[in-house]
Amino acid sequence: MVVPVTTTRDAARGTDSQTDPGPVAPAARMTPSQYGVGARFTLSVYDSDYVRIILDALAAADQAGLTIETNDISTFVGGPEQRVLDFLREVIAGAAGSGAHLSAAILLSRGCPGELACELPAGVAALGAAPVELAATGVRARAHWSLYPLLDGGATGDHMGPIYAAIEDARAAGVVAGSDHFATRLDGDLATVLATAANGWIGVGALVQHVTTHLTVSVNSPSEITE
Amino acid sequence: MVVPVTTTRDAARGTDSQTDPGPVAPAARMTPSQYGVGARFTLSVYDSDYVRIILDALAAADQAGLTIETNDISTFVGGPEQRVLDFLREVIAGAAGSGAHLSAAILLSRGCPGELACELPAGVAALGAAPVELAATGVRARAHWSLYPLLDGGATGDHMGPIYAAIEDARAAGVVAGSDHFATRLDGDLATVLATAANGWIGVGALVQHVTTHLTVSVNSPSEITE
């Protein structure tokens, strides 16, 4: 289920302007929390019994090692990349087990901890991570995926290069089902879809400090509103 | 209901590296479609009668002048900024009239037309637009909002400057209710919330070619899952 970081990444590396760690290079010793690694997601269940379905799925998922904060709009999940994705996989697969149609709007972010401001010292090195590995769920998911490397200035920066490289990686994993306006369409096991988006984000994160990715995942969609 | 582009924008202008139109400057003559102005959104209704509620809301909204494409994951809306936002306001307010709890995951994008690749010539000037004006709906909305100016290289680029400026504009409009990890919390009439996010995106779009913004809007949330 791993989406490998392939050599297409090397093409992007040459165009990035933020790989020089500069005078400050403590990133390798930062915890995921200090580096601002985490997710914010809204799980929407198209069923009048949604409260029970959502609360049951959240309660059944393993929260070990994670910071979880749920409010009226979304749920924040902070922690190491593998644990954050494990949790998303468990919650969404758990809710999907109800049979209800659901969608999950997921934001993954790294390199910009804090709330209003990025509370990192200037010049901190970009901090990558090992790709996540997620066990198959048996749940088919379709998703629209967007990846945002948030470059600052630099002589040769090109924000689209890392995006194209990540899409090529996803294509190699067989999960890309096309591209619509503003998003790449993924289709596969929920675990593959989540791992593809996460590993694109992690891979670009080795080159660019502040990287976010957004994913809208649809599960159990009825034919009535399917194209 | 207009969120004005205030002088805080001027502070960001000084830090941006993409204002020089360079040798290619046809942007002022581009149509919104040519420039890739549009939205992609997923409307989730937490009710077993969701198909009727969503289809009724889509059918009742004025589609004049817009390109609308609905598939199994989300709906694309292409057209001028004012018309795109009018449509989002009508669809969400219409569905909210059912009384059902709903959330809308909205992506607005500009400056990167096409599907997989940005089909603009290199060096095209950033293309702003007039702020949108949306009539009040009487529907209270709470949202998490993120804004992404996708800078390329440049000597003095700073992607956070335009974000902070847009948040200051929103604060001046009285719709900012705080900041959570990775997102600014907005709370107000649905029209104010949508206009705030859209006008932040439009304002930064005058400085940076490729700008996206993501907004997760929650309406009719029950107290059971409110913080």
What do you see in this structure?
Chain A has 227 residues and is an alpha+beta fold. Chain A has a single domain, classed as 2-Layer Sandwich (Alpha-Beta Plaits), CATH 3.30.70. Chain A is 29% helix and 25% strand. The first copy, chain A, contains 6 helices and 8 strands; from the N terminus they run H-H-E-H-E-E-H-E-E-H-E-E-H-E. Chain A has an 8-stranded antiparallel beta sheet with strand order 2-3-1-4-8-5-7-6. In chain A, strand 6 and strand 7 form a beta hairpin. In chain A, helix 3 runs antiparallel to helix 4 and helix 5 packs antiparallel against helix 6. The longest helix of chain A is centred in the middle third of the chain and has 16 residues. In chain A, 56% of the residues are buried. The N terminus of chain A is likely disordered. At the A-B interface, strand 1, helix 3, strand 4, strand 5 and helix 5 of A face strand 1, helix 3, strand 4, strand 5 and helix 5 of B.
CATH architectural group of chain A? 2-Layer Sandwich
User: Which strand-content bin applies to the residues of chain A?
Assistant: 15-25%
Highest CATH level, the class of chain A: Alpha Beta
Compressed to H and E, one letter per element, the order of chain A equals HHEHEEHEEHEEHE
Distance between the termini of chain A: 28 Å
What count of domains describes the coordinates of chain A? 1
Derived structural class of chain A: alpha+beta
**Mean residue pLDDT of chain A:** 83
What is the count of DSSP helices of chain A, taking H or I runs of 4+ residues? 6
Low-confidence segments of chain A: 1-25
